[in-house]
Amino acid sequence: MIDTDTAGDDVTAMLFGLLWPDVALEAVTVCCGNVYLEQATRNALNTVEVAGRPDVPVYAGAARPLVRDLVTAHYVHGPDGMGGANFPEPTPSLAEGHAVDALIELSRRHAGELEIIAQAPLTNIALALLLDPELPSRVRRLWVMGGSNNRLGNITPAAEFNFYVDPEAAHLVLAAGFELTLVPWDLCIDYGILLRDELRPVLDMRTKLSEFYLQVNRSVWEFSTKAEGGSIDGISHPDSLMMAMAIEHNLILETRDCFVDVEYSSELTRGYSLVDLNAVLHKPSNATVVTRVDRDRFKAMLFELLSRS
Ligand code: RIB
Ligand code: CA
Questions:
Q1: Cα→Cα distances 58→30, 38, 95, 171, Å
Q2: Engineered SS bond to 63: which of 37, 111, 134, 275, CB 3.0-4.6 Å?
Q3: CATH class as words, domain 2-306
């Protein structure tokens, strides 16, 4: 299952889950984050509809972080999170029930086999933990897009957005005992950005999916090109890079098992991910941090996905 705060890069990850061969996407749960919950659920419903997969249930989850007020990323993804596409009201409707209850029920139904792709602030995952502390024992692997491995964050110098929005949730989830793979922001910077020239084949594809992909990523492309401190004329793929790894593990070329925790008491470094690469704190490892990825294979998977008519 995918937990998402549906905006441009989230959508591409959902398309992998909805359309890649041999992937069984059981459900999509939605969390506030890039945009408000209501918009994020609408975007998720639009995405299952465009993918021709209205059979995949979409559940609404947390409308705000555990403790703090919500901070959104409209400035990155556009007012609707979908590049300003203003898609019509989706035909599929939300599944009955709260996302957190659905997540727990799925973990019981698929005990030992369920993998969770957590590509949003971790509020829904943390709430599920508080409701059912045994959750980690039933989840085969929790994939988390969040944090930064001793490199700059993206919403502050110290913090990546998902961990910044709900640092208390991130702290709880990392300490809960999941088999956890962490895909940090710096990895996306190094391996998950496609520049304008590389995107030429997508611009020329003119399939329904390639046009949808370009539309929902239009704002993030514009934002990256004008970003202070370093223009990147391309599209970043944090969530879809993680989804591609979860589908094809051989994309992962190097990892480091280490202790990871998240700062939540300091305002200055709120959301900072401490990644103890050299084990100087002598604390047990709680995360497998991905440090190197097969970028060419990721790009090939993305083009294969989008070229489908
Ligand atoms: O920092 C990048 C992450 O925050 C991505 O998941 C993006 O979609 C936003 O949720
Ligand atoms: Ca996301």
A1: 7, 12, 6, 26
A2: 37
A3: alpha beta
